Every structure is written in structure tokens, then in C-alpha cells.
Amino acid sequence: MRVTVNGRRTEIAATRLDRLLAELDHEGTHVAIALNDLVVPRAQWAATELNSGDCIEIITPRQGG
Amino acid sequence: MVAFYGKDFSSRLLIGTALYPSPAIMQQAIRASGAEIVTVSLRRETAGGRAGSAFWSLISELGVTVLPNTAGCRSVREAVKTAALARELFGTTWIKLEVIGDDETLQPDAVGLVEAAQILIKDGFEVFPYCTEDLTVAQRLCDAGCRVIMPWAAPIGSARGIVNRDALKLLRARLPEVTLVVDAGLGTPSHAAEAMELGYDAVLLNTAIAKAGDPPEMAKAFRLAVEAGRIAYQAGLMGARDFASPSTPVVGTPFWHAVS
What we know:
Order of helices and strands of chain A: EEHEEE
Radius of gyration of chain B: 21 Å
Number of domains of chain A: 1
Largest interface: A-B, 26 and 40 residues
CATH architecture of chain A: Roll
Structural class of chain B: alpha/beta
Strand content of chain B: 15-25%
Strand content of chain A: 35-45%
Largest sheet of chain B: 8 strands, parallel
Largest sheet of chain A: 5 strands, mixed
Oligomer: heterodimer
Strand order of the largest sheet of chain A: 2-1-5-3-4
Helix content of chain B: 40-55%
Number of helices of chain B: 9
Shape of chain A: globular
Order of helices and strands of chain B: EEEHEHEHEHEHEHEHEHH
CATH topology of chain A: Ubiquitin-like (UB roll)
Distance between the termini of chain A: 38 Å
Radius of gyration of chain A: 11 Å
Structural class of chain A: mainly beta
Low-confidence stretches of chain A: none
């Protein structure tokens, strides 16, 4: 299905958030996720289903002032 | 000691983690600064990317408290969403709230800032708002529940030092119970000392250290300047006056009235 990941339209096979992270090679990295503008806590990734047209933000720590 | 939302810290210097020549120099500079609080941001990770995790490892090694920012946000909506992600990512309710109103000066959007602070505080955040030196905006932020206020000295990265000294003095006088931090625009250790001499509780800076020729040495210079400024404030500075007042006693000056 087609979703938007970090602003880019992407074709994905995963149907749950934890599988999407594996598919995009984010497993084991320090990230936070927003699905359609709402934060999904890490504990809920495996139970969160994805739907066509979803917008997913995968966010990580960066340098800042 | 200085308290931020009930947590005590001995260092009054908060520093940023951006713009250093290398990750190793960033770590050296943070250690040399003595800072116990560092600012960080959050950005999108590219597929398969490891940059965020690598950076996070470096920060974790330092054992410091992190203050995530909403840098780059230009609307209340963006800032509130970014803060929610920061809370999840860093496991903290602290947020350095930036809502930028003007791209050239990076001047905070006072109206959006107050609105975002109100929303975030109701949601349980402890907000460190980056604001201008405007007294009434600071008061509205306090009304919203901010216990820390962070006015700029000058635009971010400008190194101009304290542009509106009188307004910063007024903020200190009118908000004696609030933790006040000069954030942004400091270029030299003497600028930081000046902020502390005005009675500010702390200073926050990044570029002046990161872009110095030797960032760890400059971090040390800022640490000493902040300490000196704080001690000077506590010691009680003399008032300025327009004319000279001799420090050496006049009475008993040799040859006084010897020429007639």
C-alpha cells in the first residue's frame, strides 16, 4: 500500500508499525513515531495497524541549540 | 545552585550541541563548559540511517540533562506536535519552546509562543520559552504557567551580545521569582558575564563556543565568565556615576598648598 513516510510517498509491504520500522531498516535505532500527527508510544508500535494513505513521521535526535 | 522546574543544578551555563567541527570536539567542549543541561533537536531519520542514534550515544555518554527544542517551528501547531514527539523521544517533559515569527531575524512569534505555551503546559510540559525581551510577553508566559523565561540578547548566532540592556534589567526587576535565562545572541564570555551581572540565573548559548577557533577552550572561558558574573552580582555591584571620584585619599596629599 502507499503511505507517506517523512514527507515522501512510499510503497510499503508492512501492515503494522513495528514491521514498517524493520522494512525501512530502523530496527534498534533511537526513534519516535507520529502516525497522522499523533505520537504512537513505543509500546504500541506492534499493535498499531497501518492503512493506505497514512502519514508517518520517523524522528530521531539531532544536534540543536 | 539554580533550579529549573524543581531540579537543582550547580552550573549556570546551558549549551547547545550543534555546529561543532566534530562530534569529539562537541563532547570535549560540553565537558569543558561544565554544563549540566544541553539542548538537542529532533529531525526526520532517513531510511536505514544511523546518524540520530550515533548522536544520541554521544550525548548519553556525557550524563547530562537534555533540553529538547522545537527549532524550526513556525506555527503553534508545528511546535505542539514537535514537543509531543520530543517527549516521547527523549523521555522528558522539558521543552525549549521556539515559535519563529521572522525568517531573517529568527525573532520569536510572541502571540504563537504564548498560545503554544498554554497548550503544552495544560498537557503536562515544563516549558522553557525562547522569547524577546518584551516584558508583557514574559508576563503572559508566566500567566500561562512558565516558571522559566528565556529572552534573547540578540538574534540567534549574531554574536552581538546584549542589545537591549535596559529591557533585560526591567525583566529581572519585574519577575524576581522567575528563573531567567539569556538565550541567543551572546558572542563573547564578557557578554555572558554581563548577563549574569544583571542578575540573570543562567545563560544558554551554542554558536559562540561551537564556532570558536578552539571550542573546548572557549567553553572553559564561558564557564569562568558565567561564574565571575554570578559572583559579582551576589557581591553587589557599585552604581555608575558621571564624574570621577578619587579612590586614593585626598587628605594628606604631599605638597598640598605648597605652591602659593
